[in-house]
Design goal:
- This protein is of the alpha+beta class.
- It has one domain: IHF-like DNA-binding proteins (HU Protein, Chain A, Irregular), CATH 4.10.520.
- β1 and β2 form a beta hairpin.
- α1 crosses α2.
- The two termini are about 20 Å apart.
Length: about 90
């Protein structure tokens, strides 16, 4: 399912226009992304949670040359499925 399919389902289920549904979905995703950018955890009970992991600087290798390279510190978003989602998928 992609973003357009989510908008279509919302439009049908909520009986609203496509533009309104698109706006709701966009606001939802924008607020999730903003919260993660601030380092906050986003939790949708029964579905999943999103959080940011911070990595320290470390030494890696260039796979082509084998040369050692310094990998700068970074933050990456992670997804963790909730218990109910896991049970629903593993029926």
């Amino acid at each position: 399912m992609n973003k357009l399919e989510i908008i279509s389902v919302l439009k049908k289920e909520a009986n609203i226009s496509k533009a309104e549904a698109a706006r709701v979905v966009q606001v939802f995703f924008d607020n999730m992304a903003d919260a993660l950018a601030r380092g906050e955890r986003v939790e949708v009970r029964g579905l999943c949670s999103f959080f940011v992991k911070e990595y320290e600087e470390y030494t890696g290798r260039n796979p082509r040359t084998g040369e050692k390279v310094s990998i700068r510190p970074k933050k990456l978003p992670f997804f963790k499925a909730g218990k109910e989602l896991k049970e629903r998928v593993d029926f």
